[in-house]
Design brief:
- By secondary structure, the chain is α+β, with helices and mostly antiparallel strands.
- The protein has two domains: 90 residues, Nuclear Transport Factor 2, Chain: A, CATH 3.10.450; 31 residues, no CATH class.
- The chain is built from two helices and eight strands; from the N terminus they run ββββαββββα.
- The strands form three sheets. The chain has a four-stranded antiparallel β-sheet, with no helix packed on it.
């Protein structure tokens, strides 16, 4: 046995957090998983939290974890799809161009118009 009953350990380093996955054995011979999160607070200080999952509870724990991961993946895909649909809808929506015409100027149809704002569809301006 290793230090304090450690059988196996692995570490995952992220930005300002480290996760340790320690497989340990207690004095009674029970094997358990200890997950430790260590956050760098400021300088040399660390905020540390640990959870322990005993061998007989691991199957239920991992089922819950797998269900949560499946939900996260499904939600991520749905959000990505909704965002793509929103973007596509925004691109296909007809836009209006607002243009103010000068007073007493002739328009392309030969009529004189006052200084009103006229709504012209985008389709009309492209043709």
């Amino acid at each position: 046995m290793g230090v304090r009953g450690e059988l196996f350990t692995t570490q995952v380093n992220l930005d300002n957090r480290n996760y340790f996955f320690n497989v340990k054995e207690n004095r009674a011979g029970d094997v358990f998983l200890q997950v430790v999160e260590s956050k760098n607070k400021s300088g040399e200080n660390f905020d540390r939290h640990a959870i322990v999952i005993f061998a007989e509870d691991m199957q239920k724990f991992f089922q819950g974890l797998e269900s949560s991961l499946a939900f996260i993946e499904k939600d991520r895909k749905e959000r990505k799809k909704a965002e793509a649909e929103k973007k596509a809808k925004k691109e296909t929506t007809k836009k209006r161009i607002y243009r103010k015409k000068d007073d007493n100027k002739s328009t392309s149809d030969g009529l004189k118009r006052s200084g009103r704002v006229h709504i012209v569809s985008k389709r009309t301006t492209e043709e």
